[in-house]
Write a structure and sequence with these properties.
Largest sheet: 5 strands, antiparallel
Order of helices and strands: HHEHEEHEEEHE
Strand content: 15-25%
Number of helices: 5
Structural class: alpha+beta
Helix content: 40-55%
Strand order of the largest sheet: 6-1-3-2-7
């Protein structure tokens, strides 16, 4: 019950952040950054709000997803869409591994991930946090997450149909227990004030 109440509060904070972003687009400041219609001060404010929100989540892990590949297509929107699709697949597979075949029936047990892409054009990777806790029904969630994340991220297997099931075969995952949540939130969002990073993020685990 405590976890559900916490997630409800966090979801309200997220909705508030998203409403702030919409309001900023509706009422832009008079002076704009030369490379886009969103001012630098707006992007700094966006970065600050995300950092505060992440800090409020009390993260279980600091996590980094690395792709270890170069993209011929340098379109930021397409690269981040690709990255988010891979993270969505990982999210599904790790839940199935930890919670079982019918993982979607236990929304209260879902893992929250808040991630931000960095070095999008040169070395795509995501930094962020994982929020989860063991429960009476699933007492080994955190241990299983640490044990199976790397292998699932590297998924590359042939299916009976002849097709291949692939996430990021050459990628890597680094999972750490955060020593300081403030440092983790600031480090994960440190590039959110850059134009190509603005409004690019991955959030899972909220319903």
């Amino acid at each position: 019950r405590i976890l559900m109440k916490t997630l409800e509060t966090d979801q309200e904070l997220l909705k508030g952040l998203q409403e702030y972003q919409r309001e900023q687009r509706r009422t832009p400041e008079p002076l704009y950054h030369p490379i886009g219609s969103v001012s630098h001060s707006q992007r700094i404010q966006n970065k600050t709000e995300f950092s505060k929100w992440m800090l409020s989540l009390d993260p279980t892990f600091f996590i980094t997803f690395v792709f270890n590949r170069k993209f011929e297509n340098q379109n930021v929107e397409q690269v981040t869409t690709y990255g988010n699709q891979k993270l969505t697949k990982f999210h599904k597979y790790i839940h199935r591994k930890i919670l079982g075949r019918y993982w979607y029936k236990y929304p209260q047990e879902h893992i929250v991930m808040v991630l931000f892409p960095q070095d999008i054009k040169t070395n795509l990777h995501y930094h962020g946090v994982v929020v989860m806790e063991n429960s009476k029904r699933f007492p080994n969630k955190t241990k299983m997450f640490q044990e199976h994340s790397y292998r699932i991220w590297n998924t590359n297997k042939k299916l009976q149909t002849g097709c291949r099931d692939v996430i990021v075969p050459n990628g890597s995952v680094d999972i750490q227990t955060p020593e300081c949540s403030n440092k983790v939130s600031r480090y994960s969002t440190r590039k959110q004030d850059q134009f190509e990073n603005y409004e690019h993020y991955f959030i899972s685990g909220y319903k």
